[in-house]
Amino acid sequence: MHDLPPTQATDTLGDDQALRLRADFPALAQSVNGHPLVYLDSGATSQKPTAVLDAERRYLETTNAAVHRGAHTLAANATELYEDARATVAAFVGVDADEIVWTSNATEGINLVAYAFSNASVGRGGAAAERFRLGVGDEIVVTEAEHHSNLVPWQELAFRTGATLRFVPVDDDGVIRAEAAAEVIGERTRIVTFTHVSNVTGAVSPVAEIVALAHDVGALVVLDACQSAPHLPLDLRALDVDFAVFSGHKMLAPTGIGALYGRSELLNAMPPFLTGGSMITTVTMEESAYLPAPQRFEAGTQRVSQVIALAEAVRYLDAVGMERIAAHEHALGERLLAGLADIPGVRVLGPPDSAGRAGLVAIDVEGVHAHDVGQFLDDRGIAARVGHHCAQPLHRRLGVTASTRASTYLYNTTADVDAFLEGVAGVRSFFGEE
């Protein structure tokens, strides 16, 4: 990675430093449809720096072996790298190494927690798992802003256990408000799960207030940190959540790797979801005993090279500085909002100003379907996300079926934002809507 000046408390990257970082990302050097690539889809998946690509390749070329399963040198070295990576990622989000469980992605992490509750509800886990058991009369609280990955698993858990699924409505800007949460969270609430940052509106949720409401009634909190872990300084211990998930592919790492955080005492009380090799202490023909967390949730052969790459991605982000990244993206988000406000026929979904927003913006262009907007931009080399972004209820609440989203990251510049704005400004005339 190119050296950058030391991070200052109010420092941002700026275009010059972002361009220096951009040189670390091979995919960003290409042209698309005859134009230099403008990549504004990091909210879906980020590009990967050479350091991360090299770390995974180096592991596969020199150290590839099954972890926790051999006494030979390669196996020992692989296991050491694997567990060092766990410690690195845990430190990045402010928790202990034994509180990080490797998953394929955040979706799997949420399903892991939901199915552990389901297993506890049919008697697995003994007395220690009592607090995870759900039944008729218990309530699971989600919000109207959730990605499907943080909604569908809880719908299924409610179906399996007889619990009731309730949701916190968003306001007219698609924002989760603490006062709305207070009207839904009550004495019957057992789980409260919500997004830290919306992948549609970019709105940052009032985490402290919602966590306090949940814990006041003894409920457990699950935080979807997919859009915060890559972009904001994140201290899960300070946020006081009980569980959290995030995905590597959104934070410079490969696909196929994610992490579940759980407070140690909770993970060790939860019955496992996936079972098999590597997560047991003793197996007889009649029954099995399980290892402590996190291994009890990591059955089978693990995604070791992806874990190594995620740790390298975290080191890269740390070297740049998460405060600096957040400030840079906030400035780009402000530029996006200001520019879009001057384009007739374009509606920004979410809060109208940049306060309490991440550096992503979703829009609806009057008279033009989001997919057509995306194709128009792609013809000009601009990569943006189109569709409902796996958040159909939120789009429905905001009165649209789909939107076009531009999401920024540390390698984006004001020129990227301006290219997007110029492209959007030409959409309606191109499709005869002016």
Automatic annotation (TrEMBL):
Instruction: Tell me which residues make up the Aminotransferase class V domain.
Output: 38-420
Keyword Transferase annotated: yes
One example GO MF annotation: cysteine desulfurase activity
Q: Which Pfam families match?
A: Aminotran_5
Give the domain of life: Bacteria
**What is the reaction catalyzed?**
(sulfur carrier)-H + L-cysteine = (sulfur carrier)-SH + L-alanine
Q: Which Gene3D superfamilies match?
A: Aspartate Aminotransferase, domain 1 (3.90.1150.10), Type I PLP-dependent aspartate aminotransferase-like (Major domain) (3.40.640.10)
GO BP annotations of the record are: cysteine metabolic process
What family does the Swiss-Prot or TrEMBL record give for this protein? Belongs to the class-V pyridoxal-phosphate-dependent aminotransferase family. Csd subfamily.
Query: Can you name this protein?
Result: Cysteine desulfurase
Q: Which organism is it from?
A: Labedella endophytica
